[in-house]
UniProtKB/TrEMBL annotation:
Single Gene Ontology MF annotation: transmembrane transporter activity
SUPFAM superfamilies according to UniProt: MFS general substrate transporter
Protein localization: Lysosome membrane
Keywords of the record: Lipid transport, Lysosome, Membrane, Transmembrane, Transmembrane helix, Transport
Lineage of the species this protein comes from: Eukaryota, Metazoa, Chordata, Craniata, Vertebrata
CC per GO annotation: lysosomal membrane
Segments forming domain Major facilitator superfamily (MFS) profile: 56-477
Record GO biological process: lipid transport
Gene3D superfamilies: MFS general substrate transporter like domains
The protein's name: Protein spinster homolog 1
Taxonomic source organism: Salarias fasciatus (Jewelled blenny)
Bilayer-crossing regions: 94-114, 121-139, 145-170, 182-201, 213-233, 266-288, 316-337, 349-370, 376-404, 416-434, 454-476
Reaction catalysis annotation: a 1-acyl-sn-glycero-3-phosphocholine(out) + H(+)(out) = a 1-acyl-sn-glycero-3-phosphocholine(in) + H(+)(in); a 1-O-(1Z-alkenyl)-sn-glycero-3-phosphocholine(out) + H(+)(out) = a 1-O-(1Z-alkenyl)-sn-glycero-3-phosphocholine(in) + H(+)(in); a 1-O-(1Z-alkenyl)-sn-glycero-3-phosphoethanolamine(out) + H(+)(out) = a 1-O-(1Z-alkenyl)-sn-glycero-3-phosphoethanolamine(in) + H(+)(in); a 1-acyl-sn-glycero-3-phosphoethanolamine(out) + H(+)(out) = a 1-acyl-sn-glycero-3-phosphoethanolamine(in) + H(+)(in)
Pfam families: MFS_1
Length: 512
């Protein structure tokens, strides 16, 4: 369907009597009619050419890759950091927790700005700040572990400016199946970037014999991303691609936005389901390479790490698994969901639920088999992470089609706050605290066993998350229909007659 077809089909939705319209509105309506008849070439509804829209998606994907690459570089060199600062598991877990906390608490602020101001300038400022602070964190001296915690916390400031906004730009460039495809490309960057974080972090550390250099790779790449944002990316019109341009959408206050989102059951339940995904991925992201190293020491496959530099292939292997399983999981999740949509409109939350419920037993087996077979452990991790990754693009798509355009950045921010607050903000620290509490002594056996027992929490949380997605399926049809119809202030849908001219409905009376 062409842009002209969309305009013609949806014109009654916003139309009014011609005598009530001003000259600008009448001219716009006449231009739409001429485009529909083919008299004028149709301009992209978003205001962005197809080529530039595609470039925008790839630039956002590149930045998302850097985002997660930077986030998990620390996990790739965590044993080195523990030996360098002489810290225990609970303090190690704080490195991820302080980052996630600043990231999630600032997300609502950037979500508010993203719904009201130019998004590419907000992202450019945030990424510049993130790159500078990441570089500063690589110069932390041995006696100041608190300085590393502080700089890792400030990194979250820059990343919050990006993660809340980028998906909404894609939503304003594409619609329907093409939006799902582009979101898939965007979310491929999460597992690939995460895997590259482990790989680059561990390999740079191995080559330089200094983990500080691992943190100096992404800042230069981040500043290059800022240049791409400023000179290539073009701000699209909000909602125009869905025939709901922003000048037809009345902006409401932040409080009213939150009130409306609090009544959106699909958004709330899918957010809680995604919180479980965040809990599990956050725990595994930080602790899996360290756990695999301790398992190898426990089974005497590798000598203990007693020097300042811990040469290990576990981060490299786990990073490669994360890259492959992430791409495979995101792709398979989208494809399975697309095929199931012809049978049930509840396909998206059902696929998300299946992904979590199937990942739980494989993650459990991976943790249990670590002391018996390294090969079996990697196989189970591969399967568990593949099913877990099925959620990423689908959850993002659910949010975008159950929330109207003027609230999407706020919804993204709220989802980030909840999923991180109850998910990966505390899970790495919680796993570390449980591990320290279970450890009876500092032997290599108890270093492994305590961490093994604490990681079993991941399987339980995955099952709970699957239950939340099953509950989402009960409301998904109703909430998607409400978003498409633009629910009015009194919760009554706008009436669109099947034939004839539409009933006059002032745009100012519509609560978007």
């Amino acid at each position: 369907m062409s842009a002209a077809d969309v305009t013609a089909d949806t014109a009654p939705f916003f139309s009014s009597d011609s005598e009530a319209d001003g000259p600008e509105e009448q001219e716009a309506a006449a231009a739409a009619g001429r485009r529909a008849e083919g008299a004028e070439p149709a301009e992209p509804a978003s205001g962005v050419s197809p080529v530039r829209a595609l470039l925008t998606v790839f630039i956002l994907c590149y930045i998302n890759l850097l985002n997660y690459m930077d986030r998990f570089t620390v996990a790739g060199v965590l044993p080195d950091i523990e030996n360098y600062f002489l810290i225990d598991d609970s303090k190690s877990g704080l490195l991820q927790t302080v980052f996630i906390c600043s990231y999630m608490f600032l997300a609502p602020f950037f979500g508010y700005l993203g719904d009201r101001h130019n998004r590419k300038y907000i992202m450019s400022a945030g990424i510049t700040f993130w790159s500078v602070v990441t570089l500063a964190s690589s110069f932390t001296p041995r006696e100041h572990f608190w300085a590393l915690l502080l700089t890792r916390g400030l990194v979250g400031v820059g990343e919050a400016s990006y993660s809340t906004i980028a998906p909404t730009i894609i939503a304003d460039l594409y619609v329907g199946g093409r939006r799902t495809n582009m979101l898939s490309v965007f979310y491929f960057a999460i597992p690939v970037g995460s895997g590259l974080g482990y790989i680059v972090g561990s390999q740079v550390s191995n080559v330089t014999k200094d983990w500080h250099y691992a943190l100096r790779v992404t800042p230069a790449l981040g500043l290059f991303a800022v240049l791409l944002l400023l000179f290539v990316v073009q701000e699209p019109k909000r909602g125009a691609v869905e025939a709901r341009p922003d000048h037809h959408l009345r902006q409401t206050s932040w409080i009213k936005d939150l009130q409306a989102l609090s009544k959106n059951c699909s958004f709330l339940l899918s957010t809680l389901g995604f919180t479980a995904v965040a809990f599990v991925t956050g725990s595994l992201a930080l602790w899996a390479p360290t756990f695999l190293l301790r398992a190898a020491v426990f089974t005497k496959e590798r000598p203990p790490c007693t020097e300042g530099h811990c040469a290990s292939s576990d981060s490299l292997i786990f990073g490669a698994i994360t890259c492959v399983t992430g791409v495979l999981g995101v792709f398979s999740g989208v494809q399975v969901s697309r095929k199931l949509r012809s049978r049930t409109p509840r396909a998206d939350p059902l696929v998300c639920a299946a992904g979590l419920l199937l990942s739980a037993p494989f993650l459990y087996l991976a943790i249990v088999f670590a002391e018996l077979s390294t090969t079996a452990t990697y196989v189970f991790i591969f399967l568990g992470e593949t099913f877990l990754s099925m959620n990423w693009a689908i959850v993002a798509d659910i949010l975008l089609y159950v929330v109207v355009p003027t609230r999407r950045s706020t919804a993204e921010a709220l989802q980030i706050v909840v999923s991180h607050l109850l998910g990966d903000a505390g899970s790495p620290y919680l796993i570390g605290v449980v591990s320290d509490s279970l450890r009876r002594n500092d032997s290599f056996m108890w270093q492994f066993r305590s961490l093994q027992l604490s990681l079993l929490l991941c399987s339980f949380v995955a099952v709970v998350g699957g239950a939340f997605f099953l509950a989402t399926a009960l409301f998904i049809e109703r909430d998607r229909d409400r978003a498409e119809k633009h629910v009015a202030a009194d919760d009554e849908p706008i009436v669109v007659p099947k034939s004839g001219r539409s009933t006059r409905v002032p745009v100012s009376s519509v609560l978007i």
